[in-house]
Amino acid sequence: GECDSLLGTEARISPRKTFEDIEGREMVAETAPLLSPAQREPFWNKPTGTRNLDVKQAERYAKDAVVRDESGDLYELGTPLARLGKLGTGVGLYFYFVFYAGLVLGLMSVLTLPVMISNFQGSYAFDPAEKIGFPRNLLVASTLGNRPPHQPLLLHSIMDFLCSLAFLFFLIYYRRRQLLARKEIETKIITAADYSILVSNLPENATREEILDHFGRYGQIEHVYLCYKGYAKRSQLMSVKEKAEEDLEQFDIQLASPLEFPEASEGHTNAQRTLDEVLSDIRKHQLEHERCPRCCGLAFVTFKLESSSRRCRMDYKQSNFFSNLFGKSNHTTSLFRQTIPLKVKIAPQPSDILWENLEVKPNMRALRVASTSVFSLFLLLIATGLIAAVNGKHFFLPTAIEQGLWFSGLLNFLSVIIIIVSNVAMFVLMPVITRLESHITKSTQEVYIMWRLWLFQVLNTLLAALVFWDASRNESGVTNWAHWFADGGSMIVGVIVGDAVLMNLIEFFRPFDVILPRKMQGPKCLTQKRLNRVYEAPELSLGMRYQMILKHFTLALALGSAMPLNYWLITILCIVTFWIDKFNVLRLYKKPALCNDEVANVATVYIAPLSLLLHLCIAPFFYTVVATCPTQIVCPPSSEVSVTYVLLGIAAAVLCLAWQPMLYVEPEDVHYHEVRCKDVSYSYVEGIEKYQPEHDWPVRIRGERRVLTWW
To answer: What is the mean pLDDT of residues 200-212?
Structure first.
């Protein structure tokens, strides 16, 4: 009544007065009073773009989600990587990877500087008879295709050998530095994973008391979270419920302005019907779970001390090893209920877990991975074939291109459209396909995204360059590889520069998940809760960022023997990417999940050595067929050819011999485990996460007694 008297006879406030914001705090709905038609102004014409909503508050929520230091302030952009422990192991190792990759590529650029100077002494690039125009002639001048025929090839072979060794030493050094950085980060930041184990192969009727009794021998247990079947469905229903409540709140406000929102009444009815249906489904699902709770086979056990968790993992590791070796089982450790063998490993970080995927069985997950991998390969071949065909249109349609300027322009326009659509389709579909595999952690999901996009990017670029093979002949029909570098080589440089600039611009300005949603969806929000959600800070995708860096230095290594300029370009790319990602993580991104080092391990142990091996396989072709005998398929024996093969063979042998002991095997550091979290109880760690999903079951199972707490 007082509000009505203060606001006037036509003013009233929506009956829905409170809601919870994205942080879980109860907020009072800031709704606009109902004004007369003469006083009302369409919400899309208001300068703030919203109806009595606080945009500053939404921006503040987004800014508060950014990682902060111990004092609660934003990190300085010049903060050393060693002090960014709150970013977690995975993000910290990514920055180390980009930093050291830039250093080694810079060193390789310096080593190949004499090779570039030697190539510049040739005359093919600037010969008017070759008809290589500007600026392609500048690129050709720095490549092996411009090398003078009389000049010895020994300089190129030696420098390439040194570059290969430099990259191999970088991998070995970075692998050791990666382990050290991981230990530094994990020692400074104590997380729930330090105290916890992931138990699998539990029976459906397992109880919390049985798990406490089974693992209590290793030390006092702080918390046990038993994973039940049906959580994925519950999570989906809860998401639909939250969406229906948001829609209902929006329509409540729109009903106050029927002239501006004529469809509000129908939308309100539909939203209320959806909410009633989903609440009914949630109650049915809840009662079904209460009557018969079924464990999905997994449980998270958190000990009070880190030493208890480590001792349990080591015990199960030894027990499983001897069980496989001698065909025996240690009934005191490995068997649950004296008959069921359990599997125990270190638990992932709580923020890294995809809770809705836990109930998927390992064999079903493996089947999904195999199916999606085949489908991904099929999509990859189609997209790569389209891109290669478009880049080779001069070969497939030699006469059509000569039919006129307008036809050539139309063909080029369609070619660009096909290339863009193929790339965008792969970048959109790969994350979607990977999510269908139901991986347990975000880190594993990012690994599969990185693998597939890296393979797609490398294949389509190299195959697109390969279709310019026919361009290695000049107008007289004589093989001259300077023309291939003018076409295929310039295309590769264009891809490297274009992708680097475009991807970094998108990453810096974030048009698709920051600018456009805030500009287009923000003015349509009628509640502070929905506006806060629209302004929510984006998240860092390690798989996407890794694949870009890995793709470019794979291309630099693959063609570095003939095009040393690529080393310089990728060095600049690493520097720019490092600072753009560091700025976004410290100023824009939501605080990253504390993911593990799985993505960094795959990049260092598998993809980087494969890139170097690809370089060592392609380099002999450049140094023999391209440089020594361009008109022949097999070069005749000579001292230069022999030296080239010997040096590259030595580099390949060193890589193969060093891979297993220096890269694949991770050394155990006993002192490191003894120092970590020593005498620090789990309950004494401030702000530590717990293993509990967002939409947890309201039923708590305690032995045979069930306590029901409704939301």
So the answer is: 92
